[in-house]
Amino acid sequence: MTYAELLRVHGPVDLGSIPTDAAPGFAEGKKAGEAALASLGPELADLQERLWAQRTAGSNRRILLVLQGMDTSGKGGVLRHAVGLVDPQGVRIQSFKAPTEEERSHDFLWRIERAVPEAGYIGVFDRSHYEDVLIQRVRGYAPADEIERRYGAINDFEARLAAEGTTIIKCMLHISADEQKARLFERLQNPEKHWKYNPGDLDERALWPDYTQAYEIALERTSTEVAPWHVIPADKKWYRNLAVAQLLREALEGLDLTWPTADFDVEAELARLAGEQSPR
Amino acid sequence: MTYAELLRVHGPVDLGSIPTDAAPGFAEGKKAGEAALASLGPELADLQERLWAQRTAGSNRRILLVLQGMDTSGKGGVLRHAVGLVDPQGVRIQSFKAPTEEERSHDFLWRIERAVPEAGYIGVFDRSHYEDVLIQRVRGYAPADEIERRYGAINDFEARLAAEGTTIIKCMLHISADEQKARLFERLQNPEKHWKYNPGDLDERALWPDYTQAYEIALERTSTEVAPWHVIPADKKWYRNLAVAQLLREALEGLDLTWPTADFDVEAELARLAGEQSPR
Hints:
The structure is a homodimer. Chain A is an alpha/beta fold. Chain A contains 12 helices and 5 strands.
């Protein structure tokens, strides 16, 4: 079974019934998991280079990895350790913060559209348009009928991206409230990590049940055939990184990426180069 | 002596007198060089995280690494192996191709200004505004007086970036014509590398002496105190990668990056977190 099959959600989602500390698809422990991740590096790099090479031959294929999760769930860690395995030239990371005034004056998908990856790239959204049905729902920043409209708008938008060549991988990094508490403690107890902490984090944390519900609704309403959601048990950092890297590998492998054939006469070029005297 | 001191150019530049296969500052060979690069990884990652953390405390510091060099000189390799050592979240790579029609209708620095890194980032230019005094000079795409104007405009532009918090590192990857020939052969002989080859590469190569002269002029006219040029011997790929990584490390170290102090009451937050019951 692929990681995509193991982790994908279908229909109504009950996050409480999905363990946060499991390691679906991987029977061994941390050490083996870290080694498995490292050994994925060359494979991922090769696949990514093929994706990039295909772009030069006119392919419109690209990857969009969407990362969502509560504070401290490890979006940054995934970027560092899983996405960090591939060539940075072929990666576009977009981190979405609270929308600016200009962004708020447009439809919620306006800033998203501008950030979708070009052909040949692996694009990564660190948070995304899903914030517009998560924090905006929980905090009541948008009225209920507008939130309602957004689920359908998201599905239409993602269907269009998929139709124009984008393979979409959506990951919800799933941690327990206890694990978050431990990670917040770690940030507070280490002066080198104070900059990562914001007192507002505790206010958000108090709304944990509301966020859980908002996630469950979003997962159910927007997990589609062309843009499925995966729930990644994320209490174990090593598993979280490995699982996302595996999803990326599976997606790239699914594209059957061959090396483009030369659009020039190789023999003629070889003769030209051989017959030429090195300048200088 | 630092790598910056060893590799920096001053005054008139004679590229012919700078060896392309040397390894200034590193007495050992390839194996040791590759190990040295790998061991720089954690150090660079720590420095980069501090740079990023400083951004959250309002610092405007940032790094701009400019990569120039003839075809096959290894700009891509530097991105993969040196820049690839740091967290991709804090890196912005901009690759400059032939300008679009819109870009051509603006001043040559217009598209450059839009691509300069934000505070906290390591920005990398894969080719740059220097193309506007290199290929444009060699090919005569712009008249002589316009080319002439650009050297001063570049210096003013870079002085402004430096004044607003940007540490600029400019690297010319210096290979011999023979080494380029060998690398072009490699691309032609390996079907998996055909996509990297373009028959136009040989036309550019025929202009090697003109490019060399254009580089020499550009290096002399735009190597300034705040934005110095470094010539990196680049026939040895391992040295090229190591040297650029070392320049990056030296630049980051020069910023004396401390961890920001908390702008909140740490004890109060610890008490708040400890006193709170985990939701759910």
